[in-house]
Structures are given as C-alpha cells and as structure tokens.
Inverse folding.
C-alpha cells in the first residue's frame, strides 16, 4: 500500500519546485518556507519508506500501472532506502545553512527542490533509461546551482562540469543502448535474467558495462576524469557545495553499485576478470592520487574536493572487489562519507561566513575564537582519516577487510586475486596522506601562530569542544587569529561567531558521525537482505 | 520482443553505426581541441546527436511500418521498434536544456571577461588569481622578466580567492 510513497517522494519536490517562482510573484522571500516544508515532508516520507523496507518489505511501484518489463518501476530496497534517507536528511539540513549563507532568491530554491527530486529519483528508479533522465536532471540543476552566486569564476567552473558531466551521461546512455540492443529490455530486474541468457562474455554486454562505468566514473569524479570537481566545489556558494559534495557524487556511486550488482550481477564480474582488475587499478590510483593532491592544497574547499576523489576511489574499489564484506564497506562508506563531507563543508562554510577563512593559513589559532566549530571540524577531519569510533573508520575497515578476503581467496566470490593487496596498499597510503592534510588543519586550528612568546599550550583535539579563554596564547603570539567579520552572526552561549542553528546542525552531524561508528554490526544486519540477494 | 531481429539489424545497417562512431569522435574531438567555448558546445551537441542516430538506427526494421494502432486493431506484420524513438525524444529534450544552460553560462563568462577563448580566459583568470598559476604561466613569467616576483610562486594561486571575488564579490556584501 505504501508503495505510493515512492512516486510521491519524487513528484512532491519536483512539483514544489515551481512554487518558489510562483510564490515569488507575491512575496520576495517565499522560497525558503516552501523549500523547508517540502524537504521536511520528503524526509518524513523517506523515513516511512525506510521503516517499511528495513522491516523486511521491498517496495515496488509500477508507474501508471504498466507492469514489468514494459513499464517503469520504482523500487525501494535496503540500499535505495538508505540513500533516500541520506538525500532527504542532507536536503533538510542544508536548508538551515542556506537560510543565512545564501544564495538568496526564489530561483535558487526552485533549483534546490529540483535537485532534491532528481536525487531521490536516481536512488529509487528501477529502469536504466529513467536513471539517465534523473542523472541529467541532477546534472542540469547542479550546473545551475554551482553558478548560483552569479560570479563568472563559478560560471566557468560550472561550464567545465557541464562538459564533463554531459559526456559522462552520454557515455552512460551509449552503454544503456548497447545493453538494450543485446537484450531488448531496460528494466533492471528483467535485465538481470536477460543478460544471463545472452551470456556474460558477450561483446555487446561487456562494451555496455564498460561505457556505463566510464560514464558514471565521470560523474563520480574518479582520478583521471576528476578535474571538474575541485573547481566546481571551490567556486560554488558554500551551501551548494555542502549539498552537492554530500549527495551528487554519492548518488552516482549508488547508481554504479545498483547497476553492477542488480543489473550485471556478481557472475558478470566473475566472468570478466579484465574488467574487475582494470576497475580496481583505476580505483586504487584514484585513492592514492586524490589523497596526495588533497595534501598539496591550501584552499580549504579544494582540499576536501580532492579528498572526495580518494574516498570515492575506495567505494569503487569495493564495488570491483565483488565480495560481501567489501560491498557492505562500500555502502557504509558511501552513506558515511556523504554525511562526513556535508559536515566538513558546513564547517568550512561556517568559518568562511563568520571569519572569512578560506585557506589553511587563515585557520591559524581559530580554535580560540570558534571552539565549537573548530572542534566539530577537527572531529570530522579525524573521522575522515578513519580514526575509530567513527563512520569513516567503519567504511574503510570493511573495504580493506574485503580486499584482504578477496586476495586471500578464502572461498569468497572475489575474482580479484593479488590485486586485492594493491587496494589494501592504496587505502593504507591514502590514510597516511589524509592524516597529513588533516594534521595540517589541526595544527593550524590549534597550534599555529599561538604560544610563540613562550606559552606553548598544546591542546589535544578531543578536548576541543571545551571553550577556551580567548586570550591565553594569542596575546603573546605574533600572529593573532582572524577577527570575526563585522556582520558575523552571534550564537548565544558560545564564543563562536557563526549562525546558531547551523552550528547546532554541525554539532549534531558530528555526533551522528561518531555514533554511527558504533553501528557496524547494525549496518551489517540492516543490509544483510540486500547482500544476501546480491550474493545468492 | 525477441533479440534475434535486432541483432540481424546490427549487421544489415552497418553504415549508420559507422556514422555514429564518426560523429561521436568528431564531436568529442571538437570538445577537446577547440579553444572557443561555443564551438565546444557545438561539439557536445554533435556528440549527443551521434547517440540519437545510434538509437534510431537500432530501432529500424527493414520494411517495418510505423507502430501506431487504432484501438481494437490487431497488430499485423512488421513494425519498427517504438521504444528507442521515445528514448531519443527524451534525450533530445535533455540535450536542448543542456545547450541552453551552457549558453547561459557562456553569456555570463563573456560579460565578465570579454572573451570565450579558453586560453585567453585562463590568462585573465590567472591574472586575477582565480586559477592557480600553472607551469606554462611560470615559464612565461620568467621569460617576461616581470617586476613582480610573486608571479613565479607556484603555490600562491589558489590562496587568493578573496582577490578573485573582487568585482563580483563586492555586490553581495
């Protein structure tokens, strides 16, 4: 019965996207309330769907009553329900920040709701061509939102993304065309059997998978084709970066998992060793190169953008490893990384809003002025490195474990052999690089420029949340932390000059990231039915 | 729908597929090699058109009729496959909206920088500090023997976002 929620989840934000423009005729500030009401109701529906799905009910809705294989299906299983909840949650939380940080104006909120609808559609659709349409809805609105602050630099970054993103989506479309030629079907579940009957080593099927993976790799931003991402993330308005970094690549990676395991299945990967090995190598290079590039950046948002390249490398490597542990790791890392990056970009955005901090050197001793924001930033950074207990650790752990299992060949389905060790090595190296750049952030936040007049007062990061007296070290030091901007908002009860509601969101996300670190077994149990179906 | 006729089609209408590959490669080459942003967009369009051609060619059945039946009429004889046509219609709509967004972005870039040539654009953006100083720029800086020593500092580029926001950033404050 509640499968009606699935089309509603997509239709409500897309239809509501017209309202900010209509409402704008009446009131200048109609956009935010409309977006808030819509995303909140979407979150409610997403939670209701997730509740039903995790209780053991897969939801399937045939649009317009056209049954498989002719119609388009919307499907919610454990994986898509988890992604749906992440999308809805981040959409609500970003709005809190967008209210103070902008971009303002009703067209922005129209685009925002369209993007939300597109992301939800991408995570719920059960049809390959429908997935292309949602991929392009997401793409188009993202290009628009990245350029939403009307600067030419962001327009250039957005245009760059548009070229690469469109080529990616078009390659995906070619892949879909090939598989359609080979089987005559577009429905994911139907294709599962159809591909098996055509044969996993059929050239058309192989080419189709290659095109689809290449297209999605562009959207995910794996290493050789990641070049749109740093510019786009850096130039976009802060609120847009938080939303896009948390969700857009994440849903593209979700699409890769969905297509690999639901459409092409594990047997396909097992039958095509060259494809899995190639994918593993690309992913491993992506993991190392992304982290190394991130460690070389001085702009805060660029650093995080390159770190995304590495983290999605881990997810894709896990997909190619093709065993149960690694896939669980991929899912956990996908969701966890989305939440983590949202928190990190939110923290960067808050520090930018309150203090004008944009680069690592701007952060010098900022922990004195903004202890809570800096503390949350530090904890999220450490979680990105993979320090337990945090969701960042959990994902990496499962993926690495899966890689070792695959390499050991202990009866798992993994066809990977020794390449598994390459992945483990890449993850290890990347962790070191991640530690390097997060340590730079921590050093800047807590030590740089302070205590140079003989008052060294090293404060460990885990005590960061405790408010410090503002003038301990900075008085004697040569460098003083950045002063708050003149129009910086005040939060009651804390010294941070950041918007209070956004700070609350940031702290909540940080606590959530740490708390999810304890949910390893719960995650394994929750996704067990999905993994069971995939590796049946 | 059986797979057999479609596979035979692949063999029978090979010229269309050759055209598909040729257009695809031309389009992507235009996108990579051309310095002008609008010509890059034209390349992108060509690239997408190639894919439309591919879908339409795959739907063609020799001697097939248009698949339109009035209600109650029984389906007789051969029909071309309607699904790829629907797909291409959708994809054309997507392509048009992409072109519109791309051209809108081009207008904004032209308003700000007065050029749509990628190389000229990069130079302008480096000058205002929006782009990191690259290898070529450093070489040029050394050749010009500029008075400003900062220009040859490779890591100075990304830092100066505030300067980059300059003319535009002022409006939001």
């Amino acid at each position: 019965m509640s499968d009606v929620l699935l089309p509603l989840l997509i239709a409500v934000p897309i239809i509501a996207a017209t309202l900010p423009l209509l409402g704008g005729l009446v009131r200048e500030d109609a956009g935010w309330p409309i977006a808030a009401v819509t995303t909140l109701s979407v979150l409610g529906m997403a939670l209701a769907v997730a509740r039903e799905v995790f209780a053991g009910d897969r939801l399937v809705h045939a649009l317009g009553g056209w049954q498989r294989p002719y119609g388009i299906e919307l499907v919610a299983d454990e994986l898509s329900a988890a992604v749906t909840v992440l999308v809805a949650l981040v959409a609500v939380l970003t709005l809190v920040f967008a209210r103070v940080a902008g971009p303002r104006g009703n067209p922005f909120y129209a685009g925002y709701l369209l993007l939300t609808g597109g992301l939800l559609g991408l995570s719920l659709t059960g049809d390959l061509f429908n997935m292309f349409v949602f991929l392009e809805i997401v793409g188009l609105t993202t290009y628009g939102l990245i350029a939403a602050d009307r600067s030419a630099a962001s327009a250039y970054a957005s245009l760059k993304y548009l070229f690469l993103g469109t080529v990616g989506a078009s390659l995906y479309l070619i892949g879909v065309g090939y598989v359609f030629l080979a089987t005559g079907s577009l429905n994911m579940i139907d294709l599962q059997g159809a591909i098996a009957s055509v044969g996993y080593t059929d050239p058309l099927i192989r080419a189709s998978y290659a095109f689809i993976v290449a297209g999605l790799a562009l959207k995910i931003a794996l290493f050789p084709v990641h070049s749109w991402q740093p510019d786009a993330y850096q130039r976009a308005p802060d609120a847009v970066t938080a939303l896009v970094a948390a969700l857009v690549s994440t849903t593209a990676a979700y699409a890769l998992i969905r297509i690999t395991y639901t459409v092409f299945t594990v047997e396909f990967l097992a039958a095509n060793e060259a494809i899995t090995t190639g994918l593993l190598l690309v992913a491993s290079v992506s993991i190392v190169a992304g982290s190394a590039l991130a460690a070389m950046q001085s702009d805060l948002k660029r650093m995080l953008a390159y770190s995304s390249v590495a983290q999605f490398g881990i997810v894709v490597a896990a997909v190619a490893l093709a065993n149960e542990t690694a896939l669980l790791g991929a899912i956990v890392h996908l969701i966890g990384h989305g939440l983590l990056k949202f928190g990190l970009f939110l923290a960067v955005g808050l520090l930018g809003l309150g203090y004008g901090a944009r680069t690592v050197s701007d952060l010098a001793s900022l922990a004195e002025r903004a202890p809570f924001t800096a503390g949350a930033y530090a904890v999220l950074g450490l979680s990105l490195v993979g320090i337990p207990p945090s969701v960042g650790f959990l994902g990496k752990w499962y993926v690495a474990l899966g890689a070792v299992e695959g390499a050991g060949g202990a009866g798992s389905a993994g066809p990977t052999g020794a390449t598994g060790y390459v992945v483990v090595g890449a993850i290890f190296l990347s962790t070191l690089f991640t530690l390097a750049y997060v340590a730079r952030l921590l050093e800047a936040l807590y030590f740089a420029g302070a205590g140079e007049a003989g008052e060294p007062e090293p404060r460990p990061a885990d005590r960061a949340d405790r408010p410090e007296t503002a003038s301990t070290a900075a008085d004697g030091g040569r460098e003083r932390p950045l002063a708050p901007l003149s129009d910086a908002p005040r939060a009651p009860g804390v010294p941070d000059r950041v918007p209070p509601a956004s700070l609350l969101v940031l702290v909540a996300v940080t606590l959530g990231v740490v708390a999810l670190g304890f949910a390893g077994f719960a995650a394994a149990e929750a996704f067990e039915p999905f993994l069971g179906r995939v590796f049946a | 729908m059986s797979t057999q006729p479609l596979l035979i089609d692949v063999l029978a209408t090979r010229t269309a597929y050759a055209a598909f590959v040729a257009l695809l490669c031309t389009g992507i080459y235009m996108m990579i090699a051309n310095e002008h942003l609008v010509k890059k967009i034209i390349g992108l369009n060509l690239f997408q058109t190639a894919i439309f051609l591919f879908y339409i060619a795959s739907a063609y059945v020799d001697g097939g009729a248009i698949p339109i039946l009035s209600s109650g009429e029984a389906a007789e004889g051969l029909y071309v496959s309607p699904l790829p046509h629907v797909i291409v219609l959708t994809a054309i709509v997507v392509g048009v909206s992409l072109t519109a967004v791309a051209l809108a972005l081009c207008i904004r870039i032209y308003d700000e920088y007065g050029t749509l040539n990628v190389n000229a654009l990069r130079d302008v953006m480096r000058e205002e500090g929006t782009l990191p100083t690259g290898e070529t720029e450093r070489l040029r800086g050394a050749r010009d023997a500029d008075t400003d020593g900062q220009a040859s500092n490779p890591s100075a580029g990304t830092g100066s976002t505030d300067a980059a926001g300059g003319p535009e950033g002022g409006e939001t404050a």
Chain A is about 70% helix and 0% strand. Residues 238-271 of chain A form the longest helix (34 residues). Chain A touches chain B at residues 102, 129, 132-133, 136, 139-140, 143-144, 147, 149-153, 155-156, 158-159, 162-163, 166-167, 170, 173-174, 177, 180-186, 198, 234, 297-299, 302, 356, 358-359, 361 (CB under 8 Å). The radius of gyration of chain A is 23 Å.
